[in-house]
Amino acid sequence: xxxxxxxxxxxxxxxxxxxxxxxxxxxxxxxxxxxxxxxxxxxxxxxxxxxxxxxxxxxxxxxxxxxxxxxxxxxxxxxxxxxxxxxxxxxxxxxxxxxxxxxxxxxxxxxxxxxxxxxxxxxxxxxxxxxxxxxxxxxxxxxxxxxxxxxxxxxxxxxxxxxxxxxxxxxxxxxxxxxxxxxxxxxxxxxxxxxxxxxxxxxxxxxxxxxxxxxxxxxxxxxxxxxxxxxxxxxxxxxxxxxxxxxxxxxxxxxxxxxxxxxxxxxxxxxxxxxxxxxxxxxxxxxxxxxxxxxxxxxxxxxxxxxxxxxxxxxxxxxxxxxxxxxxxxxxxxxxxxxxxxxxxxxxxxxxxxxxxxxxxxxxxxxxxxxxxxxxxxxxxxxxxxxxxxxxxxxxxxxxxxxxxxxxxxxxxxxxxxxxxxxxxxxxxxxxxxxxxxxxxxxxxxxxxxxxxxxxxxxxxxxxxxxxxxxxxxxxxxxxxxxxxxxxxxxxxxxxxxxxxxxxxxxxxxxxxxxxxxxxxxxxxxxxxxxxxxxxxxxxxxxxxxxxxxxxxxxxxxxxxxxxxxxxxxxxxxxxxxxxxxxxxxxx
Length: 588
Fold this sequence. Notes:
Blueprint: H1 4-24, H2 36-61, H3 68-82, H4 93-111, H5 118-139, H6 159-179, H7 182-198, H8 205-222, H9 225-235, H10 239-261, H11 263-282, H12 294-307, H13 312-317, H14 327-356, H15 359-376, H16 385-399, H17 408-424, H18 429-447, H19 451-465, H20 469-481, H21 485-497, H22 503-514, H23 518-531, H24 537-548, H25 552-564, H26 572-587
Helix pairs in contact: 1-5, 2-4, 2-17, 3-4, 3-14, 4-16, 4-17, 5-6, 5-7, 6-7, 6-8, 6-15, 8-15, 11-12, 11-14, 12-23, 14-15, 14-16, 15-16, 18-19, 19-20, 20-21, 20-22, 21-22, 22-23, 22-24, 23-24, 24-25, 24-26, 25-26
């Protein structure tokens, strides 16, 4: 018959498991009426206050000890809020999410104090298994993909974030498969097999590299590889250098192979990092402001291509990214060296606490956190809510210590204080959620080009949705197509501040052309062309504008450039533009 202590342990464990699963449950939310990303965020808003309330008595039952990692987390959040690029608007949505992720981190700190976090790990592995099973279903056609161009997305909007989520769980699953016994080991092996079935099919090179690094850490500590390597070197001092060189050659060959597999994608990211370095150089200490990457990046890329010091390959792979595809670079661009050092303080102190604890118990968490950081060096996980929450959990797990805890009063009062931001940044979200739903409904009419009906509804949504670049672009188009070019340009200039999409400047240029302000139209079309120089459409519009305004020589010269230019992607639209340019030249 189970003892009272066991009953208490498993009762609390069940509560911890459920609360942890709730914090991770935004992963599973799809939400066709809101869009994948927005649905996950609004679900998170709805469940966080309740979980925060439930965790408060748990902090009293089992208080945690405050650590250096906790201090770095608080400092990073406070610094990011102070470093917001204020422009008369309310605090940005991304800043609000940052605060809530910080709250979630401390909730995980509470939950990981129960049975060394095993119940939290169980919730994480269960989440990973559901996601892997979801992906297997998509591979075999049992469940639909959530992206029209990809067969495998899990519950995410494309394979990138999906592979990142799975790869961070992979080392922890391997750790449990190697260290536990009986039922937990069997369950861990089942999850491991499910992950192995899906991860290769994601075709994510960064996820593969991250998985190898994370699993190497786990295997290294489990089998004491460092000690064995030292022993092998002492026994075979001549063979060891040959073996090391051979391994390095194999690794180098594999890296070249993975680069060549998606060369254009890799070259595109190299260009993003190169342009981002110019942004860092201009604001090295404090950065350009938290959550303020896309708009300034568009301006920086335009300046880079305007200087002319670029290669034809860079011109071909250029695009209009929302992210830096490297979180360390993006953190430095937005928050400068101060923000980067604070972020590195979070990571280094968390790993340090894991090493100071019994490392054979923490190897899975260190491997998982390392895999996440490798993946983050080639992707944008901090712009995807479930991945950000996963990072908060991994840091909390690494930070968990067996040292004497703080006072119950201290942790209890601290958790009560967490309720303030939890409610502050999740309240009044119903109005925004309804606005998102209305916008999605209006997009049907927008795509049907029913602009007269749509423009009034977009005008009503504008005060709530004005921090969303896609909405501003669509609203600006509606105004342009309903004979309001001046107002359209005002809205589109707001969009250009938070987006790098050159199409914004194309519409601005068409508006100026409609108002017969041809110099301003020319500047806008050139700006769009220089931002992403492999696109033909800005030059096509420029040639048409020159022809309309009587600038014959410029029209002919620009039309010839359009005909000679090789686009990044061939399409019927490109052929039509080239046909129009041939007709223009014949007319002249």
